[in-house]
Design brief:
By secondary structure, this protein is of the alpha/beta class. The protein has 2 domains: 221 residues, Rossmann fold; 104 residues, no CATH class. 35% of the residues lie in helices and 14% in strands. A 6-stranded parallel sheet has the order 2-1-3-4-5-10, with helices on both faces. Helix 1 packs across helix 7. It is globular and about 55 Å long. The relative contact order is 0.10. It binds guanosine-5'-diphosphate-alpha-D-mannose. The site of guanosine-5'-diphosphate-alpha-D-mannose has 24 residues, from helix 3 and helix 6.
Amino acid sequence: MRVLVTGAGGFVGRHLCEHLAAHDDQAIPIRWPASSAEDRAKSVDVTDAQAVRDAVEAARPDAIVHLAGLSSVAASHRDPSRTFAVNALGAVHVLAAVQQIAPRAGVLLVASSEMYGPLVPGSRATEDSPLRPVSPYASSKVAAEVAGFQFHRGRSLSVVSARPFNHVGRGQRTDFVVPSFAEQIASIRRGRTSPVLQVGNLDAVRDFSHVADVVEAYRLLLHRGEPGQAYNVCSGEGRSIRSVLQRMIELAGVEVRIEVDPSRVRPSELPYLVGDPGKLQRLGWRPSRTLDDALSEALAHGLASRGVRVDFVTSGERPSTESSLLGDGASSQEGLLTVHRVRHTWDPQRPFCPWLASIAARRGSDRIRQGQNGRCGSRCGAPGAPSAARPAPRLRPGADCGSTAASDFL
Ligand code: GDD
């Protein structure tokens, strides 16, 4: 299936394109803005109706997933008109272009749980719950969904709406809560900043899913969603932001002082937002990742963005080609941050593998030994580390050492 994905350069878009490719669908990504010269050809501003028509014309898709939009609830309070222009008008441009050029293509609009507005604590929103938005972001999403169903009823377009609740994973921007905490924890963990963590409202309760489960839901909806219907994408479990933060602190093993930053507290806030996933589950959706998986990945990503490249293996995931280089122990979890493979450069002029040596010095560890004859020779104790039975490969100067380290060393 040829699937045009708008917003393909964003957090969910990148995961979705990977997921489609893994299932032999052809993702045709469009994004905005262009992130490089190479990207420019695929860059489309959804507020430009002609550009959207041209993109649909060029793609001739069997299906469209419309993800492009402004996704920050907090930022929407600062610029409601732009939020509406991109989220509501952008969706109308996509729908109109599909109707004109590819009227048989299925459209999945990605709306939001924010549309439900205030819920009674302890309840779970179903797709029949009233929509009572309290932010410009939420009302722009309501407008987009209403337009989608109007195109379905009035022009027979095959439009399905997904209403995702919060989702987490690798690669989310730090204006969202989990990556913001992860980035701060990474800084603290590496001794770069004082151990103070800035937060907003920790009492809010949200329903979190792993982004990989969310993109599986989107593909399922393309195939099995009923046109004219909305589907919640959620776990059904409410968690306070405080408990999520607490868990991240435990996983990372840091001690922090928590400080409320008034600029992170929103002018209007939904205290409780939890959904009922029953309708999507009846189509066959079975999420398979835990919140710990998602939080571990976000933490590893935070560390990676602080200058350490970290590849990780989580429970329930098959080891990737790269992680299988770790050896037999790679797919088993070591604590919850699992085992990491860390790239660094081997310099044969120096007696120690410099990266591991610097960690040894910091930790006062005697588990890292001097390399010999251009071999790393490290004995960090993690699965897959060089050993007598599995010696480290010979390395050229500047090559990746290939050593592994347990998260404990980061
Ligand atoms: N961003 C942020 N930063 N949020 C914080 C912080 C902080 O330091 N401290 C507490 N929070 C609270 C927010 O007030 C909110 O209640 C909750 O954490 C989640 O905030 P976000 O991660 O920014 O997400 P969101 O709930 O506003 O919106 C996300 O989920 C929606 C679906 O429910 C976005 O992904 C939306 O695009 C999505 O539609």
